[in-house]
Structure formats: structure tokens, C-alpha cells
Amino acid sequence: MESRLIIAYTLMLLITLVFAGLVGYLVYHSRDRSDARRRIRENRDHAQAMLSKATPPRE
What is the residue extent of each domain of the chain? Predict the structure, then answer.
């Protein structure tokens, strides 16, 4: 009976560690994704601003 408890607790610990690693990975890489989206948005806004400056206004 005692060996079953050791196996059960070991499996619970392993599952907890895997879950914590997955959450940590997602949290760590979510900043990279948000930074990439921000850079894309800034580049698009900058290109639109340069395009509007390059074309003369219509009269």
C-alpha cells in the first residue's frame, strides 16, 4: 500500500511540474508575441504616415 502512495505522489508531483513549466513557457513567450504585434502595428502606422506625407492633398 505504501508503494502505491509513493507512486501516486510522484505522479502528482510530475504532473504539477509539467503544468508549471507549460504555464511559465506561455507567460514567458506571450511578451514576445505582444511585442511582435506592437512592432507590426507601429510599422504599419509609420508607413501610412509617410505615405500621407508623400502624396499632396487633393483640391
Answer: 22-48
